[in-house]
Amino acid sequence: MAKPPGLFLRGARWCVRIIIPRDLTEVYGKTRADIALNTSDRPEVGLLATLKRTEWGADFEAKRSALNPVLAVAITSEVGAVLSDLIRAPVLADDERVRHDVRLLTGGRLTAAPRRHDPLSALRLVE
Q1: Rounded to whole angstroms, how far apart are CA atoms 53 and 96?
Q2: pTM to 2 decimals?
Q3: What pLDDT digit, counting tens, does each position of 4-43 carry?
Q4: Which of 22, 29, 49, 69 could serve as 16's disulfide partner, Cβ 3.0–4.6 Å?
């Protein structure tokens, strides 16, 4: 059986070297990981090395997806048109209601407030 990539013997124990992708070196703080397989049995080493590489590959994908989340829904032009209609309808309805309701235009009054002439108002401003 061929030796899996990164497999090497350290003393009497087999290890597997996993190269950490460049985009994840900041997350892991290193460029490679040497993992002891805790066995000296050559037939078992191939399977253990493949399992470790698979585990680390899944961990790499999990870290990548955590660092670069993918949007669940891309906004297409059709979705944009629907959203625009949903926003536009209440805004236009409010605009029409305000235009045709005199009370809303005058701040709740049907007629303008009468102005009262106060001859002392000029003296109060001087004080």
Answers
A1: 65
A2: 0.52
A3: 888 999 888 999 999 999 999 999 999 999 999 998 888 8
A4: 49
